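Complex record, four chains
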Amino acid sequence: MTLLSVQNLHAYYRTEAYGISRTVRAVDGVSFDLFPNEIYGVAGESSCGKTTLIKVISGSIKHPLKAFEGSVNYNFGDYKVDMLQISQSELRRNVRWKRISYVMQGSMSVLNPVRKVIKTFEDIVDTHEHITDKNEFLQRTRTHVNRLGLPTDVLNAYPHQLSGGMRQRVAIALATVFQPALIIADEPTTALDVVVQRGVLHMIKDIQAKSNNTVLLVTHDMAVHANVADRVMIMYAGRIAEEAPTESIFNAPLHPYTQHLINSLPVIGEKSTKASLKGSPPNLADPPSGCRFHPRCPYVMDECRTVAPDLISVKERHRVACHLVKEGSQ
Amino acid sequence: MLKVLRDLLRYDGRFRLAIILLGGVVAMVLLSYDSPYDPGKSFVVPWDLPPSREHLFGTTSRGQDLFWWLTFAVRNSLYLGIVTAIISRVISVLVGLTAGYRGGWIDRVLMAISDTFVVLPLLPILILLSFLLRDSMNLLNLAIILGLFGWSFDARLIRSQVLSLRERSFTRTAIYSGTSGFWITINEHLPFVLPIVFATTLNNILWSIGMEVTLSVLGLSDLTTPTLGTALFWANQHGALVAGVWWWITAPAVVTAILFLGLYLLFTSINEFIDPRTRLRLIGG
Amino acid sequence: MSANEKLLDVQHVTVEFHIGGLLAGTLLTAVNDVSFSLESDKPEIFTLAGESGSGKTTLSRLLLRDLEPTRGKVLFEGRDVSTIRKRAEFIEFMKQVQPVFQNPFDTFSPLRRVDAYLFDTVKNFRMASNRRDAARVVDNALRNVGLSLDEVKQRYPHELSGGQIQRVSVARALISEPKLILADEPVSMVDASLRMEIVNLFKKLRDEQGVSVLYITHDLATAYYISDRIGIMLRGYVVESGPVEDVLERPAHPYTQLLKESVPEPAPEKRESWAKHIELGTTEVKEYGRIGCKFAGRCPQVMDICREADPPDIQVGRQTVKCYLYAEHVETPQAGAQP
Amino acid sequence: MRKFILRYLIPRIIQYLTLIFVGITVTYVIPRLAPTDPVEAQVSMMIARGNTLDPQSVESMRAALTDLYGLSGNPVEQYFAFWGRLFRGDLGPSLNNFPTPVSKMIGQALPYTLRLLIPAVVISFIFGNLFGALSSYYPANRALNVLEVLGQVVRSIPYYIVAIVLLVVFSYFIPIFPFSGAYPIGTRPDWSSIDFILTYLEHAALPAATLILVGFGGWFVGMKSLTSNIISEDYVVYAETAGLSKNRILVQYIMRTAILPQFTALAMVLGTVFSGALIMEVVFGYPGIGSLAIRAIYNNDYSMIMGITIYSIIGVATAVFIMDLLYPLFDPRVRYQ
């Protein structure tokens, strides 16, 4: 059974101002599935389309972003829905937070600065299941927060009184009040120190292991994926370059871009020279022809400049989009 | 520059309206140089005539053609506004840039002074001042006084902008490129401050013309100079409304409103255009 | 310059900040009795590593003369930098010490062309006598970082990628032919695929141009990759320092050990040790205010003495460690105590 | 609490005292910088009015006026004497209504001004902010767009013109409101009579409308630009993602933060609003401080103008100070620093 099936998704930003119109092809033909009970990692550099992808699958499409093609189908078992067709009210009633919750990029600032933390819990819980018994709600929230290893005092604090790591953990606690089937975590630890990052990621892993739900973890940090994700998708310039179980991605990467991402990471205890790719990430308003990676690829061939490679399955659960790799070749 | 104007004309309704309104005002200013009547003389035309083809805005109880008289009024009021704006811009830019870049006690002293000017109720003070200077209160002196009082809020704006610019890395890059404080202010900070200066200039012109109207209505300016304010003063003096000469009040009020609306619309549309954030949002760059 | 004169000599530097108003408020010691030095005859890359709030950025501002130390001295080529008052002296100092900043998109004003900064630098440090000469100097500096004047001429920052701007930033720093470059998190905001070319650039500068680099970062992996020596900072103290191989391969201080094992490695097979449960710190202010070792609240090997007084600097092998665990080594302090 | 006093309260008290000190000093200095000698001006005006005076009584009047204006002694002595009289609340007698003290006349006029000003400020603040926030949260709503245009237009036009337009339209062309005054000439104020209160309100309608309209425009535009920034803040986007209702987001997440700078702005514009109220009173012949001022101008009542200036400065400074003191009640970030 799949929890989420994204098929051939094209989502562009189209803006028009003072006579100049621009189309940024942020997500350009992406297909993948999410299964229950897994941590799925999405990796890529800035402006590779990963944030846009999240916006679309969480139903947060707002002008100037628009989905032009494709489908985003959820199957929550008791409830099935197409995210591109759903109405705002239904989204709010049946999906948001109860089934899909969200840990945002820069989560440090997701808490209302002029209200106590408990009030944010109250707002969210009251929105989705009316609070009738205030004491019961308080009791439940305290238990929830304690179970996640946070002290109860945080509930009575204002956000500016908490440290960055604590705020991030409060954000995770908020995202899990209803035991959602899918938690989308967008760069949840980017601004945090390594020790705090480790603690926060442990918390996410623990929650997932206990409630067997699905976590979609987006981060540019490959080392985090290596330690947290079950499967990883590598995005480049709005398309999927490669997708495979974590072990395969790190031990046998097939796409030259993936190989570069992994091999260029410095590691303590190893001093061999690491190199950068030539060139810069492409401008998605005017992407390169053929394979979008070809201007930077060390193995570029003529075919790459004109024909965009399809995303093909090379073996069980391992897909890659590169002309060097042929179907079933491994 | 021309392209900017064309873009604004084509895509911004407010800008188009502003150009039409201000075009009318400018036309009046130009016409004043070819006026058939001397605004200083009274009883040159029959008095209390309602608006007609011959006397576009009617005539006053003092026997003046209101339209031609107002052409001078608009010219003088604009002159006042521009002189005031120039004086107060110079002060606010100097104070704002200095306080922001130098910081420390200089900043604290300058800001304490400008805060005081922001909060003080200006009108009573201006009344006191104009009352005492009534005899020497010509247009230029009024402009200077208003300029001396009208800089504080904008100095504050500029200073807070510079304060944040000072913390930006490029200021430190410039320092370590060996650039002196003066050139850092000119090259690195002034370009960010200019949009504020420009926007506040229009705002300040509005403010000073409004202040002139207020003081004139109270009889505290040079009443022999035709301005939008003195027009209303003389109308009040002759009890224009009670006497049924409604056009004497209405015409200057409408011209003032048009001038204000025009400048204000110009201010908002240009302000939005030069604000890099809105621009980025619109062009998606 | 005498033979034993250091390029940079930081001597027992302490920086205290008042937080709060004029009358009340607390004293925050951002940098606490820190000493280290760089040799003038042997160019090297020295890393100061630590988490946010460890004092590493305060230290870099101090070395760039944005701040003055509350106590202690910073000597550059034997001269106390806080005695630099005249502009001409400051220009001389800046010719020798140049910074590279963290955020490439903020290093140059978005409203100015980037080459303007390069030409300004040439002019202000009198590195060329005429316009054509200046262009040659600028082009040379850019070629050192793998760019050329033609590539950046008349370009605004937004027309270049983060990696390119950061290279221009290094080029600008090189124009005055400095002896020391201070790089504060120079790659943390650069995309992964472009990061290593900048890191490699610092190596090249050390090897080919004899420039010493003070690399300030929270990223232990790149620190290990490029530096010769490293100092680990925690709440204002340098808790451990020494050759980077020793400190990061065999960390002695419990904090360095925790830091090192918290760095995730791009190797899924090593998940187990990373996933081991850890204690997170209390709030920052509480750790700043702690008497004794700042790590005592989280240290798995904490002893009573740790909460009473600051631990001394102890030589353990080639490392210097601020920790009571190695207190038996102190007995012969002069003898450089090899265990 | 101690921290609060030291870090918040004391700086504000210092600011308050500075403001009064600077304001009063300015009003002290201005007459002394003026090229005209107020005493001479007064004397020559008396003579010009046709009073034939022998040189001796002119001299004694000169001495009396010099004393009255606090012009005896050297400037430093004068300055201290000036403060001394201020502390006693003695601003001298009105020259026009001799010997009624200036303070008493201001005391009689002030309630008229405040009874208009305070409700008008409160009403325009509440509605301007409310509709400003609504209009940026519901950008497609037609009625709100119309309100915005109205707000933008009115905001840019001076009080005087707005007042004149209202007067011409609603008293002259469509005579539904009285022309001037706070109640019909010849009536005695009787607050127990419903009829009196009704006619009082009828007279107050246009003056209040002037203040409310201009204020509404200002708050509307200010709130709109504030909220349009807050709408893209992380915590608002987060609340939307979490599915909170639009009303809850608007009130608890957007307005609650956006209103804080508006409170600060309210303190900043009090002086301007007060000035606006004065000029509005002149247009409508409303018997408050503004009318007092214009009568003083016409009658060359120097001590009255001085008194009004000083009271205005103290009044506005005190109002700003009180608002500053109340601010921490609304902003927890200030309360728990």
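Note: Residues 331-339 of chain C have pLDDT under 50 and may be disordered.
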